[in-house]
Amino acid sequence: MSKLDMFIWFNTAVAIMGTILNAKQ
Description:
Elements: H1 3-24
């Protein structure tokens, strides 16, 4: 797994968490 793959996966996880948090508010 390259650093770029990890960077993309991390950004995706953050975006998903942000969407969930916004939906709960």
